[in-house]
Amino acid sequence: MARDLARDVTSDPAGDLGGNLAGDLGGDLDQYLQHLAVERGLAPNSLAAYRRDLRRYVDFLASRGLREATGVREADVSAFLAAIRTGGDGRPGLGAASAARAVVAVRGFHRFLLLEGAAPTDPAADVHPPATPKRLPKAIGVTEVERLLDAAGAVPPPGGLRDRALLELLYGCGARISEAVGLDVDDVDPDDGLVRLFGKGRKERVVPLGSYAVAAIEAYRVRARPELARRGRGTPALFLNVRGGRLSRQSAWSVLQAAAERAGLTARVSPHTLRHSFATHLLEGGADVRVVQELLGHASVTTTQLYTRVTADTLREVYTAAHPRALHA
Question: What is the CATH number of the domain that holds 55?
């Protein structure tokens, strides 16, 4: 079976995984692609991506007079990375994510050649993929948040009261999901509208809760939590599961997904989406970024700025309203 698959990999004209590249590097590439297909079982789409990236790499080496793996040096691999970013090899330049994928393919190729004894060294070992920008979840609008919260509360009690309180808290103070499910009853002060959260490294912060979140938590504590607590053995946890134990992160995630589905939200919504929406809506409302930093519990304001990208329109509106020479008198 393995031999048949390997034969298909290199003989199928449509796949053309390794091609008929001249020189030893072409043969090495054929062997590596067979290894990926047979021994590692890569999916066809993944194999096709490896083929494209590595054929481009082998062509680039050939343009530098290199046709054997033994002649490749780290400078050649680095030059390839620079060429695919800028289009210096005569092909369209690649973005950071696509270039990173290509470098991963090249690193795997050279590691394979070293392990197989086809090359004495690994010239790609110290060539690292370019950093890709952090992708943050897209904030949902206030109207979508309201639909989500209403949908959470639509479940019959005690579940609906708990789910509404959980999501109101996530959006009301920007808590991480781990912080929310880690709360004990005494961590919430409804009289002052404050909640004590324990973030990464058990770092404590006290942040305000909006009146909607306070009301939802109090409704849950009075009308639903006692019923859930009777099913368990006694726990100080604020949010309880159906057995009376502390609600897990996975269960809280499921609560959110179910509410999003009932609300008809087409965008993918995660607990972090609510945290990002919390921060974004604060900034759009005029909050200072360093205040948002404290609320989110970030050690660096740089991290907060990644979470709280505001639109150009919002920036323009704030500038126009605040700068003394933004408009003619």
Answer: 1.10.150
